[in-house]
Design brief:
The chain is an alpha+beta fold. The chain contains 3 helices and 6 strands, in the order αααββββββ. The longest helix has 44 residues.
Length: 175
């Protein structure tokens, strides 16, 4: 009876709601955790538990195979650790990008009071557009890039009209 009710009901919304700033990055980050990281941890956990079981069997003089299972557990744990380090870097980068897109999106929302329309995270086939502002003065497409700052040093970018440079790297590039 509950299925009949839910099948007859439908969303009152005629169109999908607009996307939030950084929504595709958030989805990518979540997928990375769920589809790549968690299976590695689960597999390593199962193998380690199996190795513990084998050691218990060995302790009680049951026919043991601890070296084989321990070797397998060490290999899988090493693989999970490698995946953790690799995925951790990607997750940190996605988190930084997500925070940057949200911050820019929040600033752009103020433009609505000036008659602008603001759209966030427009997804295409293999790409996304972070923000689009439609105003009386034109259509503006905004790509957001967020860079982390050095932990203990000052982070500054200077531009003299022709060149810009970062105080961190002391390298300059012609704009």
């Amino acid at each position: 009876m509950a299925n009949e009710t839910t099948q007859k009901e439908r969303s009152p919304l005629r169109q999908k709601p607009l996307r939030n700033p950084g929504e595709s990055l958030q989805v990518e980050r979540q997928n990375l955790l769920v589809e790549e990281f968690l299976p590695c941890v689960a597999l390593a956990t199962v193998v380690v538990l199996f190795a513990a079981y084998e050691w218990i069997r060995w302790s009680f003089a049951l026919p043991p195979q601890p070296l084989l299972v321990t070797t397998l557990a060490l290999l899988m744990t090493g693989y999970a650790a490698y995946q953790f380090v690799t995925l951790r870097k990607r997750l940190k980068a996605l988190k930084l990008g997500l925070e940057g897109e949200k911050a820019v999106g929040q600033y752009l929302e103020d433009l609505r009071t000036q008659g602008c329309r603001v759209f966030h995270d427009i997804v295409g086939n293999g790409f996304n557009i972070d923000h689009v502002v439609v105003s009386p003065h034109g259509i503006f497409v905004i790509e957001t890039k967020t860079y982390s700052k050095p932990r203990r040093r000052e982070a500054r970018v200077e531009f003299d009209g022709n060149e810009y440079w970062s105080t961190e790297s002391n390298r300059s590039a012609t704009r």
